[in-house]
Amino acid sequence: MNVVSYADLLRFTLPELAVTLAGLLLLTLDLTVLRQASERRRFGVAALIACAGCLLAIYMLTHAVAQYSLPDSMFVVTPITSVVQIALLAFTILTVLLSTSTRITGNIGEYLALILFATIAMMFLVATQNLLLIFVALEFLSLSLYILTGFDKRSRQSAEAALKYFLFGGMSAGFLLFGMSLLYGLSGSIELPRIAAALSGEALDPLLLVAIVMVAIGFGFKVAAAPFHLWAPDAYQGAPTVSAGFIASSSKVASFFVFGQVVILGLGFAGGHGAFHAYAPGWVPVLIVVAALSMILGNLAAIAQTSVRRLLAYSAIGHAGYMLLGLIAHTPQGFSALLYYVITYALAALGAFGVVGALESEGVDNIADLAGLSRRAPGLSFCMLIFLLSLAGIPPLAGFFGKFYIFAAALNSEPHLGLLWLVLLAIAMSAVSLYYYLGVLKQVYVVDGAPDAGAIRTSVVTRVTLWVLAGLVVLLGCVPGLLLNRIGG
Length: 489
Hints:
Blueprint: H1 6-12, H2 14-31, H3 39-62, E1 68-69, E2 76-77, H4 79-99, H5 108-126, H6 131-149, H7 156-187, H8 192-199, H9 206-222, H10 232-238, H11 241-266, H12 283-303, H13 308-329, H14 332-358, H15 373-376, H16 378-392, H17 398-413, H18 420-445, H19 460-478, H20 481-484
Antiparallel strand pairs: 1-2
Helix pairs in contact: 2-3, 2-5, 3-4, 3-5, 4-5, 4-11, 4-14, 4-19, 5-6, 5-11, 6-7, 6-11, 7-8, 7-9, 7-10, 8-11, 9-12, 10-11, 10-13, 11-13, 11-14, 12-13, 12-18, 13-14, 13-17, 13-18, 14-16, 14-17, 14-19, 16-18, 16-19, 17-19
């Protein structure tokens, strides 16, 4: 259904407007009425407004028209995009709740407003099939994340991480824009369905292959896949902990979803084949190389890390390689597997960063600092156990089913098990990841800490939020149909 009136435009974008108004309201109140109030009260009021705006948006999404489209594919909503938008809003609420126990440098309104503005960008990003809006939403999201990365003005490490993130981001935006311009030049359209219709059935133009490589480079940066990952370890370590968790969770979900939209919906005709016996040029062989590099480099580099946050960063690079298998499969089953994997990964990653953030006041940063944590904070330790084992893919947690489903999709996508070698590599790298995750848990549960170390106290909000995240990881592992049935699995 095509709509052209501004009234319909506003009605269909009400969830995004609700989050926008919440961000502007909390920013205005924090800079005016609450300016002289205590920091705790300011954060409480701002967090309440932010969560209320996201909850209102979730309510609107659950009661909106199931499927509609604006002209030129600028704004397209389907049942799957609604589920992803609801997941993004849920991650935003959880991020805001985890932020209440962190120390922000007095700029509370600005911090939470940036999180909401990034969420708005992600909501538009997953609900468009137009190259122009994809690029604009990506850059709006990136600008918000750059600022969140460097938000701790007292930390030189945070400023350095933000600068590296910005420089690499600007370079990747150039590659992405160049690739998109080639797609427009070849097809005469910036709508993904029309690009596919204009170029399908023809021999692959050399310029189209260049466009595919450029687009893969641009999105490879956004999802932190090797060899476009150089910003991730510094950004994850230097950013405020909750900001790093937000980057590792919500932005990963939105980026992989739109990446899938571009290559499957817009470039599905140019997928090619990556099997040795049936090789054909296209974006599938390109992503196979990126996936293999990400799995190998991310997991092997994680072994050498002494910082928990850098370990999680290299782990994220490895997981990006697993997620790319869902795109490489180039099937509806593969895309459903990708969505399940990236959402459940985001739950575990945000939870792991949440635990690290809760320990910041104790000066915990290195893996060795976690020694004896199970006796000082048994609740946090158990949550960390669930998150890390899920990331490693241990049943019955969500990470196990995510890996099983995405590996099965890759195996079934090529005749004669053409991608068996890539799946075997992924399984081998999963075993490597289990080694370094268990190294962290060894410090938590086996190694004795300082005998005079006291109990670690955290806020009730933080504890409840982490238990909710841990509960969701267990629930979606035991009953995966709760999510799979809504994303077409």
